[in-house]
Amino acid sequence: MTRFTATAVPLLALVLAFVAGVPARGQVLCQTEADDVAALAAFDRAVTSYLEMHRRLDAGFMSHWFAADPEADAVASSRLADAIRFERRDAARGDIFTPEVADFFRVRLMTAARAGDLPAAELRGPDEGAGLCVPLPDVNARVSWATGVRIDETLAHALPALPLELEYRLTAGALVLVDVSANLVVDVLVDALP
User: Fold this and answer.
1) Among the four 45, 78, 146, 162, which has the fewest Cβ within 10 Å?
2) Which residues constitute the domain of residue 185?
3) What are the angstrom distances between the C-alpha of 46 and each of 23, 40, 62, 142, 148?
């Protein structure tokens, strides 16, 4: 009996770690409510900081937005994107999706997937089912058809709400944070989906 227990304990620990979702790439998944609160606060601070910069820069272009003139809107969007790229010229993946925030998002997405709230097509993303090889977008890149699709309402409820200027998109198993009016990639969370 002692021999069985000695080998069963490490095996049980291994099974529990697998079931709990061992984090990829050495990251530590949020373990407590305090971790979740801290990650959510960090995400909120990063988004608020980005929005302050976005709104300050957009104030100079607001006179160029015309609802009836798509060409003028495209020019204004491009100019806003250029201004944001200049302001965030050193922006990199993980500026908003810091490791703690990334873990929080992965846990939320994994929980929604395990609860059966997310359809398989939503988890795969738009490109995987078609057999396409779509590269992950770069931070500060313009949004294109290959940047992915907007998330559906079910997935949106699993994630923190965003202001109107931002939205989530899915592509190649990654969650992409997009600036809507600038048509710009703000950050990319790689391996976001289970």
Assistant:
1) 45
2) 32-189
3) 23, 10, 23, 20, 23
